[in-house]
Amino acid sequence: MQLAQKIIIADDHPLFRAALKQAVSQAVPGVQTVEADTLAAVQEAVEQHDDADLVLLDIHMPGANGFSGLVFLRGQNPGIPVVVVSGSEEVQVMKRAIEYGASGFIPKSAPLETIAEAITAVLQGEEWLPQEIADTEDDVSAEDQQFARALVSLTPQQFRVLNMLTEGLLNKQIAYELNVSEATIKAHVTAILRKLGVHSRTQAVIAAQRLGVEAPKTELG
């Protein structure tokens, strides 16, 4: 007997999660869905459901920090395909998502039928982009690709610390948020700088911000 397929739906807006769940059910009858509203919750869901068949990921949810969340999630879980579902619908954003490891990009403005079609295609091992985007050229620089590879070497905790650095938090504030000592955060920062090949917190933040994506003004979540 074939087991039901399992899809993780990651978006911080409950109404859009409900819409995605409807599209998923339409595309895959009998599917099991797991919902997450932050990147940390996505990572936890993937750890608990390592047999998941697909992750639908919003790149503007808390902790995702643009493409860095996608890159880290793919690096930590290479066996689970990820499809970006976002209100950022610029050609450059869609193509960069594929370059950073996504198996597809679904605009949030797409009708449920199109979302279902895209999910079906990816589950069958295909890559999916809106037709008008699929034939355009890639534009991810070699520098960004190198940083993406370095980003994957971080531990989950180091990744959280890096995201907090990009938000301008001090070591003391990060230690409070993560409920650890300030000395532990200093050790994490030292390791982050070494792994990313930079010499200062400022350089690390600038590098991380290169993977950022400006949130669309009409974004719900």
TrEMBL record:
HTH luxR-type domain span: 147-212
PROSITE patterns on file: HTH_LUXR_1, HTH_LUXR_2, RESPONSE_REGULATORY
Keywords, comma-separated and alphabetical: Phosphoprotein
SMART domains in the record: HTH_LUXR, REC
Residues carrying 4-aspartylphosphate: D58
InterPro entries in UniProt: CheY-like_superfamily, EvgA-like, NreC/VraR/RcsB-like_REC, Sig_transdc_resp-reg_receiver, Tscrpt_reg_LuxR_C
Keyword Phosphoprotein belongs to the record: yes
Transmembrane segments: none
Annotated Response regulatory domain residues: 6-123
PANTHER family with a match to the protein in the record: HTH-TYPE TRANSCRIPTIONAL REGULATOR YHJB-RELATED
Protein name: Response regulator
Species in which this protein is naturally found: Marinobacterium aestuariivivens
